[in-house]
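The protein record minuted underneath.
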Amino acid sequence: MNKYKFLTRIMTSYLRHFDVSPKVFFPKPSVKSTVVKFEFKNKNLDINKANNFSDIIFKNVRKKIYKNLKIKKTENIILNKRVNELTIDELLWIYNFI
């Protein structure tokens, strides 16, 4: 999980439509491409708040969440994890908690 995956997951839903062969590009890339459609799912979401939250959380990924948020050490299991140990649901819980 990184900042951009988190923001994409909370703001949009996406659907993969089809793959594109490298043969249709010039010069030919060494990776395969996919056409993806994004749709905003929550238009009432404050994008600035979500971006600021992700900047804070993902700034130091090796630190525990409570240190990134600059709050006192807690017994909360989720806040005692590092950001790379969290699931998207746990990140959303922290986002809503803050």
The CA atoms of residues 20 and 26 lie 13 Å apart.
